[in-house]
Design a protein that fits this description.
This protein is mostly helical. Helices cover about 65% and strands about 0% of the residues. Helix 3 packs antiparallel against helix 4, helix 3 runs parallel beside helix 7 and helix 10 packs parallel to helix 11. The longest helix is centred in the middle third of the chain and has 37 residues. The protein starts with 17 loop residues before the first helix and ends in a 9-residue tail after the last helix.
Length: about 300
């Protein structure tokens, strides 16, 4: 408090969050540990991240090595299995365990990168629409309504058919196709807070528009965005697998879980493990992310949250 005026100086952008940053992380970690399903999901994702990073070191074999003499070998424990191939081989004799490890890298990259793209686009457009309103708001929200009129998978297939398959194309398509959820939430939140006292104080102090938007408004509306992003990662992993399954996502030369599903669908009767194992990997990853998303939704909701 100022000794001369007795008035609390207005904090610089970000200063109001510094004191509680460390304790807040400790509270979040304690809450996560107490919620067992979310904690198990977090442990699974940490393990998956480790596998994705260390895949070139820990993978037992080259995921692209073809050996037709070893084709369609079952997982260990079944008749005809090989001890070198714990989860069996595919129709070209490639080791499924190694391919699952390498495929996790693509799922993580696509899921996180596409969420980052859609989040940035949606947040910026939502901030502009909610803050300025008027014709700019009508234009942005009108474009959002047009995009919502198209089913997502149909829109993604159409764009991918034009651009062609590819890792970067898949990330870009998923990113630009899912910004609307962020934009609508941010717009609504900005409309609710732009007339509050701390925003008026920022205007009175002569803060530029970008500083008001990104340092005063955005930090106070991040809770719902974090929850949306957590669920969006799971959705994008499924979408990437769907596009790869249809042959419109990542090229077959790059190992993906969706591509493994597509290859295994023709062998469901004789070699069920080819499609079942990558399907289980997708299911476990998406379930873990959703469990963490449920915890985040409750933890960040002041009406539900109870601190110890």
């Amino acid at each position: 408090m100022s000794a001369q005026t007795g008035v609390q100086p207005y904090p610089a952008p970000g200063d109001e969050f510094k004191d509680d940053f460390g304790p807040e992380w400790r509270k979040a970690l304690g809450s996560l540990i107490r919620v067992r399903p979310a904690f198990v999901g977090a442990l699974f994702l940490v393990g998956l991240l480790f596998i994705a990073i260390a895949a070139p070191i820990i993978a037992p074999m080259d995921p692209s090595k073809v050996d037709v003499r070893l084709r369609l070998k079952p997982p260990l424990g079944l008749e005809g299995a090989r001890s070198q191939n714990l989860l069996g081989t595919d129709a070209l004799g490639r080791d499924i365990l190694s391919r699952l490890m390498y495929g996790s890298r693509i799922s993580i990259i696509v899921g996180l990168s596409s969420v980052l793209i859609s989040g940035v686009i949606g947040i910026v457009l939502g901030l502009l629409a909610g803050y300025f309103g008027g014709k700019l708001d009508d234009l942005i929200m009108g474009f959002a309504e047009i995009q919502l009129a198209f089913p997502f998978i149909l829109l993604a297939i159409t764009i991918m058919a034009v651009l062609g398959p590819g890792l970067m194309n898949t990330i870009v398509v998923l990113g630009i196709s899912r910004w609307v959820a962020y934009g609508r939430i941010v717009r609504g939140q900005v409309l609710a807070v732009r007339e509050m006292e701390y925003i008026e104080a920022a205007h009175a102090l002569g803060y530029p528009v970008y500083r008001v938007l990104f340092f005063q408004i955005l930090p106070n509306i991040t809770s719902p965005l974090i929850v949306i992003a957590s669920f969006a990662v799971a959705g994008n992993i499924i979408s990437e697998a769907s596009l790869s399954f249809l042959g419109l996502g990542v090229p077959p030369s790059i190992v993906t879980w969706g591509g493994m599903l597509a290859e295994g669908r023709e062998y469901l009767r004789v070699s069920w493990w080819m499609a079942t194992l990558p399907g289980l990997a997708i299911m476990a990853t998406v379930l873990s992310i959703n469990l963490i998303g449920d915890w985040l939704r409750d933890y960040l909701d002041p009406r539900v949250r109870t601190d110890p």
